[in-house]
Amino acid sequence: MRREEFSQLRVRHIREIEGIWVFDLHAADIDLKTPWSRRYVPLHRDLFALDFLEEMVTGRSDEEMLFAEVAKSTANDVFGDGVGKRVSRMMDKAGMQVVRKNGSESDGVYHPFRHRMRTMLVNLNVNEGIIDSITGHSPKRRGGQQARYTDTVHVPVLKKYVDQVLLPHDLRELRAAWEKSAARPKP
Length: 187
What we know:
The chain is 42% helix and 6% strand.
């Protein structure tokens, strides 16, 4: 998902459809980039290993922000500026570096993950329409039969392909780095 998408989510935007847990980006109160961004994004299987539901959803009010530490920036009226900085600190602590295709280091830390996910799905030979359904891109821009005749891709199909992506880092290590990145330096 885009940083601004997940940063707006409330607890109620995590729901179960056909036995599959998803981020529900269909709600009218979520400000999305395009109409094609309205979609269901299945939770990757590795999020369950991190007890995502137990820690982020269970026992919380539906109206609470899913990521309580994320707020709308007063400087530029978008969500997620703070999380971008925190992810950058987390990556530094974990020794990770985001590199562009040309080999230079990226100054943006979150958006390249979307590019990486798309590349991983392409390398798995996932159909472009399914990739668009996961990432919130319009198949209409490419034209052709698929764009003309394809409707909504079902959640179980999306889940199948999301779970095929092997994340390149140990999420437990990233979680520890995330928690350390929230700690303030001692004076």
